[in-house]
Design a protein that fits this description.
Blueprint: H1 28-45, H2 50-57, H3 61-68, H4 76-86, H5 90-93, E1 111-115, E2 121-128, E3 133-141, E4 146-149, E5 157-164, E6 166-171, E7 174-179, E8 183-187, E9 192-195, E10 202-210
Antiparallel strand pairs: 1-2, 2-3, 3-10, 4-9, 5-8, 5-10, 6-7, 6-9
């Protein structure tokens, strides 16, 4: 049975915010070019037609054409569906540089994939897809802002360390406070919410770990 890769917003009811230019991240055109290049490479590597990818991902052929021609800034929901179809991490789909044994991510290469109110955001710093799916994220949550995520693939774990502010992590029906300097590890295969109940902006770093995908490339978006 195939497993969907981790996408923070993969079951978001709306299309989600488009990727774009924010301070400290690459130009939107550079990100769109990278997504176009990576999508074409992953599709041709599998000898898939655009029609086949559209069927697997649930993304229209017209949208896929625009993505591969770098004529659109797709939403995080669309990117998640495409990544799930290929069976790769979101990080691999938005990777700006070719793979190397050492991958240094310059601040200008960090890609913002979620933007909330008053500077809130989720930045995908780096990820790997060699065995387990692992993604490293940096998050900012402004005062009273929150982000909800549906449960991810069974066995997914998240590790968070709070650098500033106090995070209220809601997992199922339980709420847990994580103060600056503290950390939390939890099973992320159930609905969870990151919430800021205070006036100070939350700065936190998150690592998402999924179990190995034994059917690489045979993944479809569950929603």
């Amino acid at each position: 049975m195939h497993q969907p890769v981790h996408c923070i917003d993969r079951r978001s009811p709306g299309p989600g915010p488009p990727i774009g230019r924010v301070r400290g991240v690459p130009d939107a055109d550079a990100v769109a070019d990278a997504i176009a290049r990576n999508t074409r490479h992953l599709r041709t590597e599998r000898s898939w037609s655009l029609d086949h990818l559209a069927t697997r991902s649930g993304v229209s052929k017209g949208m896929l054409v625009q993505i591969e021609q770098a004529r659109t800034n797709p939403s995080i929901g669309t990117l998640c569906r495409v990544a799930d179809a290929f069976g790769v991490t979101l990080a691999q789909l938005v990777e700006l540089a070719d793979e190397s044994s050492v991958r240094v991510v310059d601040p200008t290469e960090v890609v913002r994939l979620w933007a909330g109110a008053d500077g809130s955001g989720g930045d995908l710093l780096v990820g790997t897809d060699r065995n387990e799916h692992v993604e490293l994220w940096r998050w900012h949550l402004a005062a009273t802002d929150q982000h909800h995520s549906e449960g991810h693939v069974p066995g997914t774990r998240e590790l968070i360390t709070v650098l500033a502010g106090t995070l209220t992590l809601e997992v199922g029906d339980a709420a847990h406070e994580v103060r600056a300097g503290g950390a939390v590890l939890f099973e992320a295969d159930r609905p969870h919410t990151y919430r800021n109940r205070h006036k100070r902006t939350i700065e936190m770093v998150m690592v998402v770990v999924q179990p190995p995908d034994v059917e690489r490339g045979a993944v479809s978006h569950p929603g």
